[in-house]
Amino acid sequence: MAVVSYLNTRPLVKGFETGVMDQMMELSEAYPSSLASMLIRDEVDLALIPVAIIPEVPNAEIVSDFCIATDGEVASVCLFSDCPINEIEEILLDYQSRSSVALTRILLKEHWKISPLLTHAKPGFEENVTGKKGALIIGDRALEKRSSYRYVYDLGTAWKEMTGLPFVFAVWVANKKLPTDFISLFNQTIQSGFSELESVIQKFENPHYSIRTYYTQNIQYRLTDDMRNVMDLFLGKMNEIK
Fold it and tell me: What is the CATH code of the structural domain delimited by 2-71+166-231?
């Protein structure tokens, strides 16, 4: 099993610290797009991957009612700049998640209605945001950078403004049929971790952003039927902008 090495996954993996599933799986961590590649290459059987990658995974099956989603401000997926968005001429795109990149493209076209140059960035790109150049930054680095730039455009907020709907960034996907008993225990283990949310908050609190706010207000962890419908809407829009 593979999971994103971001703060937003800590409540999801807390339950596995008990060791209840140690004999059934091994947990590894990486950034979102890397996890997707591992799942596609069959290096792992199950991973928390960006929604945008699901169509590329052979025999893809969503196996959990837990996810990484938001219903408004997400805080950790943002477009940063030192100028208003309508003045941005180039946007550096974070290399770590294709869902966030696809969402950015959709919002630029349908919500903000602008067409800046889009550049796929490399590690360290966060230091190159000057003048009329902006950057899509995701994950823990986005939380750290919130006070570094004059303008912060939250993608969860923008999607909510445009559609009135929540947004799902990542879901648990398997590339093969998994035993029903395994899936049941897997979900029970995740659920057990949320009973220890307070300890997770205390462990990962940081000076850049309130982790309590992040876990209890920004991130939604339950994959509802409405969110499943939103995933279809997003994938449809993603195909339209290719």
Answer: 3.40.190.10
